[in-house]
Design goal:
Rossmann fold; 5-stranded parallel beta sheet; 9 helices
């Protein structure tokens, strides 16, 4: 099985690019949202470490956002509870799709949390900062203060780019991105 990992800046279009490969995608952000909504175990653990904020189940994103904005340490506490669960879900996903030729991992903190393997093919989604900011402002549920906090736990983009096997230039024009992904996929399959 070939593992393709998609990395890049917040709002660079990683999830869109991941889907374009046409293989099963593990989306860590969606998993986190599910954990907040459906996982009582996570709720209990978060309630224990953030009693001032977490009171009712399911956990709302607003409550998490407030906890992170009010105190830097809270993000670390949340990460400690949530990331092991996400890793568990990722392993289940990989096991479930083990007969597939390729799986795509859309995990923003893949390199930071050392979830990647040596043989993983890392794709960096490169997009202009101006375009990213324009897109982020259009999103309903984006708090720019939160994004700054998340950036602090991420590796510098240049380092991610350097560690990547391929770069997809995302100009947010679907045609060129699709073409770019097709070319990369062809190379990956011919090298397999």
């Amino acid at each position: 099985m070939i593992r393709i990992a998609v990395v890049g800046d917040i709002g660079s279009g990683k999830s869109h690019v991941a889907k374009l490969f046409g293989y099963p995608v593990f989306n860590a952000d969606q998993e986190v949202a599910l954990l907040y909504k459906k996982n009582r175990n996570c709720f209990n653990k978060l309630k224990k470490v953030l009693p001032k904020y977490i009171a009712s189940f399911p956990i709302s994103k607003k409550v998490i956002t407030k906890a992170i904005i009010n105190n830097n340490i809270n993000l670390k506490k949340i990460i400690k509870v949530i990331h092991p669960e996400v890793r568990l879900q990722m392993n289940k996903f990989i096991k479930k799709n083990r007969i597939k030729k390729i799986v795509v991992l859309d995990i923003p903190l893949l390199l930071e949390n050392k979830i990647n393997r040596k043989k993983d093919i890392i794709i960096f989604v490169d997009a202009k900062k101006k375009e990213i900011n324009k897109r982020l402002k259009k999103r309903d549920n984006v708090d720019l203060k939160i994004l700054k906090k998340f950036k602090k736990v991420q590796l510098p983009l240049e380092l991610k780019k350097k560690k990547s096997n391929y770069i997809v230039k995302n100009n947010f024009k679907n045609h060129s991105v699709k073409k770019n992904v097709k070319i990369i996929l062809k190379k990956i399959l011919s090298n397999a």
